[in-house]
Amino acid sequence: MLTLTDIYVYPIKSLGGIRLSEARVEARGLEYDRRWLLIDAQGSFLTQRTWPGLALLDVSLTGQGLTVRHRTRSEIAPLLVPYHSRQSTPIPVRIWDDICPALPVSEEADAWFTQVLGQPTRLVQMPDTTRRPVEPQRVPAGAVVSFADAYPYLIVGQASLDHLNDQLPQPVPMNRFRPNFVFAGGEPHEEDRWSNFWIGSIPFQAVRPCARCVVTTIDQQTAVAGKEPLRTLARYRTWNGKVMFGQNLLGLGAGTVRVGDELRSV
């Protein structure tokens, strides 16, 4: 039997993740997942690819909104980000090849992140009215995604990570791969072979394996980059010039998934 063991959301893209016992499935991803984005003065998105120090920013969900803390700089007071922006005029932001309308959060948030990064930075939120399409050549028309790289969901089997760690000089934790779902059971990379399946009562569609980047080499506790696990993965998981690990998904329904839910094929 395959069982859901972990659920993660990453409310602000490329900042710390949050482990949950249950989460709501929505069309563009789990509730709160990658609904906020940091942009530079030109409106282009920022990630750990060029700013590994973003790994040191922890995010939590509170009754009032998101709380963001710097893990190592205690002199910087935490930032509260309301769940809903008070701004009503969107601005264009660039994420990969997409330009999307997003709402500025606040001058306070902009000043906080500008101080932390040492360059002009803004925090924006994706409103429900923004429709960022998923790759139209691969998925049904109308599928949308948040500020995630390409797809609303990412799943990784624990057996896949265990198989990788058996080949590494030092094992790495699952947070290097920033999944939404982790499951136990099955063979390494079993998720490669999936098509339509269920997590509990919610249907999902597996679309394609996830191409990995330099973010996997950044220690999420220290923000220090190395060469692993990408170097080892490249030896046995390179397809068409890309290193693959985990499976990208679409959600085909709405509802709640919970740790302990069974995964089963259609």
Structural descriptors:
266 residues, M1 Pyruvate Kinase, Domain 3, 4-stranded antiparallel beta sheet, 36% strand
Topology overview:
Blueprint: E1 2-9, E2 18-20, E3 22-26, E4 29-30, E5 36-39, E6 57-61, E7 65-70, E8 79-82, E9 91-95, E10 98-104, H1 107-117, E11 122-125, E12 153-157, H2 158-165, E13 181-184, E14 196-199, E15 202-211, H3 230-236, E16 238-239, E17 242-251, E18 255-258, E19 262-265
Parallel strand pairs: 12-13
Antiparallel strand pairs: 1-2, 1-13, 1-19, 3-4, 3-18, 5-11, 6-7, 7-8, 9-10, 10-11, 12-17, 14-15, 14-19, 15-17, 16-17
Provide a descriptive summary of the structure in words.
The strands form 4 sheets. This protein has a 7-stranded mixed beta barrel with strand order 1-13-12-17-15-14-19. It has a 4-stranded antiparallel β-sheet with strand order 5-11-10-9. A 3-stranded antiparallel β-sheet has the order 4-3-18, with no helix packed on it. It has 3 helices and 19 strands. It is mostly beta strands. The chain is globular and about 50 Å long. The longest helix is centred in the middle third of the chain and has 11 residues, at 107-117. It has 2 domains: 2-30 and 134-265, PK beta-barrel domain-like (M1 Pyruvate Kinase, Domain 3), CATH 2.40.33.20; 36-125, no CATH class. The protein has helices spanning 107-117, 158-165, 230-236, and strands at 2-9, 18-20, 22-26, 29-30, 36-39, 57-61, 65-70, 79-82, 91-95, 98-104, 122-125, 153-157, 181-184, 196-199, 202-211, 238-239, 242-251, 255-258, 262-265.
